[in-house]
């Protein structure tokens, strides 16, 4: 499968860091620069004319980036909100998602059926462990393997992308596994191989 991985544009949590988190704000939106970065991806996403599915994190900054970078696909292909591609959860309130009903109001063309329950049930005061993030990323790969679409765009987050590319897949090119900049898009080909484990 051809997968176009997109890190969200600059969010207020990127700009203000600890100040934003100390005020307990949830689900950071994009800054003006972040919106510009997302719109800047439009040229690339229009060239990638084979996209058949858009997957977005339930966090606002990723969904907003997808909406601004691929408006031409809103009514053309399915859009799915997927909890497995959400950023590393816990501790930082910017990574706590809003209620599902709020997200649905902002992005009504996205199918949010996989995002349950209504309130974020994953976020806690403790940071999610790396293995848990890796397990989510791997579960997403398995879900994606079963989808019929051959070309997919995924709007998500830096730590999740780093985990995916460094612990769940073998990257032929180490540059692909490097940390993503805000508003960056990288295209990868996923080749699934079934391994048979024996005693």
Automatic annotation (TrEMBL):
SUPFAM superfamilies, per database record: Phosphoglycerate mutase-like (SSF53254)
Cited Gene3D superfamilies: Phosphoglycerate mutase-like
CDD domains: HP_PGM_like (cd07067)
Residues in coiled coil: none
One Pfam match: His_Phos_1
Organism, as annotated: Aureococcus anophagefferens
PANTHER family documented for this protein: BROAD-SPECIFICITY PHOSPHATASE YOR283W-RELATED (PTHR48100), HISTIDINE PHOSPHATASE FAMILY PROTEIN-RELATED (PTHR48100:SF1)
Protein name: Histidine phosphatase family protein
Any one annotated GO CC term: cytoplasm
Lineage: Eukaryota, Sar, Stramenopiles, Ochrophyta, Pelagophyceae
GO MF term list: phosphatase activity
């Amino acid at each position: 499968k051809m997968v176009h991985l997109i890190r969200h544009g600059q969010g207020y949590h990127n700009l203000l860091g600890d100040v934003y988190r100390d005020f307990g704000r949830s689900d950071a939106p994009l800054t003006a620069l972040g919106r510009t970065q997302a719109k800047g991806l439009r040229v690339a996403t229009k060239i990638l004319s084979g996209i058949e599915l858009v997957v977005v994190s339930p966090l606002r900054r990723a969904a907003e980036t997808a909406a601004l970078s691929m408006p031409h696909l809103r009514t053309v292909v399915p859009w799915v909100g997927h909890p497995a591609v959400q950023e590393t959860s816990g501790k930082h309130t910017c990574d706590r998602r809003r209620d599902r009903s709020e997200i649905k109001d902002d992005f009504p063309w996205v199918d949010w059926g996989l995002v349950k329950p209504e309130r974020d049930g994953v976020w806690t005061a403790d940071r999610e462990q790396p293995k848990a993030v890796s397990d989510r990323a791997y579960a997403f790969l398995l879900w994606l393997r079963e989808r019929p679409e051959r070309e997919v765009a995924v709007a998500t987050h830096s730590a999740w992308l780093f985990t995916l590319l460094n612990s769940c897949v073998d990257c032929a090119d180490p540059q692909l596994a490097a940390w993503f900049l805000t508003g960056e898009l990288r295209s990868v080909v996923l080749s699934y191989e079934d391994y048979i484990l024996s005693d």
